[in-house]
Amino acid sequence: MYPQFFRTPQSFTTSTSEFITLLNDRVQEILDIVRATAGKDDVLLLIEGPDGRAPVADHQVGWLATTVTLFDALEKDIKWAFPSVYQAVGKAVIRFPDSVLHQEVAKTVAVLQILSNLPVMVHNVANLMHPAIDAAPRADAVKTAVDALLSDLLVPPGERNGTLSFFSEKLNDIEQERAQLPLRSSDLRRIAKEYCMSQGDVAARRIGELKTLVQRSLAQGSFLLRGETTAVDSLGGDLLKAAKKHLGPAAEQVFHRYAEAPEPG
Predict the structure, then answer these.
(1) How many other β-carbons are positioned within 10 Å of the β-carbon of residue 103?
(2) Is the peptide bond before 3 cis (omega within 30 degrees of 0)?
(3) Could you read off the pLDDT of 8-36 as tens digits, one per residue?
(4) Which residues contact 3 (CB under 8 A, 6 or more apart)?
(5) 163 strand-pairing partners
């Protein structure tokens, strides 16, 4: 995929992971045609399967190329261009050698982090790992795998505002040291106070939203008097004014017949 994984338009990896420069313009011409047809600047041509795996054309109908497919196909290029990300995936493979799912999650996070054109969130990771059209959803399993990777101290992924990313080795060490620092009592009180204030703001906002929702629902209803219904919006757009306007005639009738009401004996 150019330009993320290749330094120049003419650079391509060989089977020995060395880089060669094509002296003719045919490859560049092909890339230009593909870009013009797809309407995109970033293109990827999958011709052979990585490491002896089956080429795309040999898969059954319904098979989907995923971010794992991209990582495996471009593994040597990622190792060369993004060594820290590649090493992070390698640590995930070492820590979870028997779980293909955990390894695929790590590869997907790596690809999305390199491309940086889509938020690296759990639901995006799960969707881009979907292996076939008729495959069962794996969102819950992917979420469990992500939590396991985040809780593992030797694998350096991080999460901020729901976005996943792999840290560099030094940054991962800093994050581990920071997580081991004990909180002071003053910090705990400040955090609890800030949390309570934020929850008060949330409650006030929810009450306002609920009030608006109730008023809107009532304004779409009708008044009922002596078996006759009157739409609220026919008496005006304001709910309170409409209620007073409708209750006026009723109050006059009740007051006029008040003397006929029986007295409690």
Answers:
(1) 21
(2) yes
(3) 544 444 444 444 444 445 556 656 766 77
(4) 9, 42
(5) 160
Nearest to 86 by CA among 10, 28, 168: 168
Report the run of H or E that residue 19 belongs to, with start and end.
strand 19-21
For residue 6, give both structure tokens: 């290749």
- Which residues contact residue 171 at a Cβ distance below 8 angstroms, ignoring those fewer than 6 apart? 156
Task: Identify the helix (H) or strand (E) that includes residue 73.
Answer: helix 67-73
Give the pLDDT confidence score for residue 183 in this predicted structure.
67
Please report the pLDDT score of residue 182 as a whole number.
72
Contacts of 78 (CB under 8 A, 6+ apart): 5, 71, 85, 86, 110, 114
Tokens 């993004």 -> residue = 82
Q: Which of 81, 74, 145, 67 is nearest to 109 (CA)?
A: 67
C-beta separation of 6 from 77 below 8 A:
yes
- List CB contacts of 92: < 8 A, sequence separation 6 or more: 102, 103, 105, 106, 149, 155, 157
Please choose, from the candidates 92, 102, 108, 80, the residue with its C-alpha nearest in 3D space to the C-alpha of residue 16: 80
Nearest to 28 by CA among 11, 16, 14, 10: 10
Amino acid at position 18, single letter: E
pTM of the model: 0.51
Report residue 174: phi and psi, to 5°.
-65, -45
Closest CA to 128 of 97, 53, 138: 138
Question: How far apart are the C-alpha atoms of 71 and 120, rounded to whole Å?
Answer: 15
